[in-house]
């Protein structure tokens, strides 16, 4: 019959759980300093588990730190890209304004040239209508009063101006002599 009770025949005690007979003998010799193989293995396993847990926590912190750094780098890159785009937009706007200003200045310059040309044409027309050219050097000379005898101050040529310069050809008593 089997009762299922276990006992150690060598030591005449109930079975010493988790110890071999040799370990049981060692425990009897030194009960305070004794540790069984299983206890040593349990301590080693617990220490290994603790070390593994610490290593896992360290690795998790490192991975978290890498993820955080990667996110910071991504955000920094996105921010720098936004700044670059903003600078490019500002530079493009400044260039556009500069070109518009240059175009306005060119248009103003062209208008000034046109105005000067018109003034020059009007001046030449006035000179043509109010002067008579010196027969020697063709320099325009305006008679404003006095007799009809004229002397060109540039080369001392003497000539007569018979008609009033402001009058049109054909107006006045001496017009037929000028022709």
Written overview of the protein:
The chain is mainly alpha-helical and 179 residues long. The protein folds into 2 domains: 10-130; 131-179, no CATH class. Helices cover 60% and strands 8% of the residues. It has helices spanning 21-29, 37-130, 175-178, and strands spanning 7-8, 13-14, 132-133, 140-141, 149-151, 158-160. It is rod-shaped, with a radius of gyration of 60 Å. 1% of the residues are buried. The model is unreliable at 164-179 (pLDDT under 50).
Short description:
The chain is mostly helical.
Architecture blueprint of SSEs:
Elements: E1 7-8, E2 13-14, H1 21-29, H2 37-130, E3 132-133, E4 140-141, E5 149-151, E6 158-160, H3 175-178
Antiparallel strand pairs: 1-2, 3-4, 5-6
Spatial ordering of strands, largest sheet: 1-2
Fraction of residues in helices?
55-70%
Beta-strand residue percentage: 5-15%
Show unreliable segments.
164-179
Gross geometry:
rod-shaped
- Distance linking N and C termini: 168 Å
Mean pLDDT, all residues = 83
Structural features:
179 residues; mainly alpha; 2 domains; two-stranded antiparallel ribbon; rod-shaped
């Amino acid at each position: 019959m089997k009762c299922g009770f276990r006992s150690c025949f060598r030591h005449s005690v109930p079975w010493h759980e988790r110890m071999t007979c040799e370990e049981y003998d060692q425990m009897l010799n030194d009960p305070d300093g004794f540790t069984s193989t299983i206890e040593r293995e349990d301590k080693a396993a617990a220490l290994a588990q603790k070390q593994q847990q610490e290593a896992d926590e360290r690795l998790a912190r490192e991975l978290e730190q890498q993820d955080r750094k990667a996110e910071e780098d991504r955000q920094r890159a996105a921010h720098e890209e936004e700044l670059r785009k903003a600078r490019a937009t500002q530079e493009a706007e400044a260039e556009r304004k500069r070109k518009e200003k240059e175009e306005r200045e060119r248009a103003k310059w062209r208008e000034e040239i046109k105005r000067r040309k018109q003034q020059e044409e009007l001046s030449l027309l006035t000179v043509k209508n109010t002067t008579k050219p010196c027969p020697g050097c063709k320099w325009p000379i305006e008679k404003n009063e006095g007799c009809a005898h004229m002397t060109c101050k540039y080369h001392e040529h003497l000539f007569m101006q018979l008609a009033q310069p402001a009058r049109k050809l054909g107006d006045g008593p001496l017009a037929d002599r000028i022709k």
